[in-house]
Amino acid sequence: MSQTTPRLFLVRHGETTWSLSGRHTSTTDLPLTPAGEARVRATGRALVGEDRLIVPAKLAHIFVGIPDTSPPATARAARSSSLV
């Protein structure tokens, strides 16, 4: 097996009511809006797959941020792609 150059992908969460109004949440944890949910699913479909930028079989690690928003959003993105 040949070595490949490590790559890092950063994906931000989807839209919240605060981000929609231009406010910054910092450590405040807010649920995603329906549009934010849709964007998360679309991002998963666009970026992840055997013929996409992120190939699941080649992932070594997945890191997520804020406990209440990021893991659910990450799980939705994963379900929208071929990760799960």
Please give a structural write-up.
Helices cover about 35% and strands about 0% of the residues. By secondary structure, the chain is mainly α. About 10% of the residues are buried.
Question: Which spans of ≥5 residues are poorly predicted at pLDDT below 50?
Answer: none
Instruction: Give the distance, in angstroms, between the N- and C-terminal Cα atoms.
Output: 25 Å
Rg of Cα set: 14 Å
Largest sheet: none
Give the class from helix and strand content and strand pairing.
Answer: mainly alpha
Question: What percentage of the residues does DSSP assign to strands (E)?
Answer: under 5%
The number of helical elements comes to: 3
- Overall mean confidence score, pLDDT: 76
Shape type: elongated
Helix content, binned percent? 25-40%
List the helices and strands in order.
HHH
Number of E-state strands:
0
List the helices and strands and how they pair.
Blueprint: H1 17-20, H2 34-47, H3 70-80
Helix pairs in contact: 2-3
Overview in brief:
Helices cover 35% and strands 0% of the residues.
Which key features would you list for this structure?
84 residues; mainly alpha
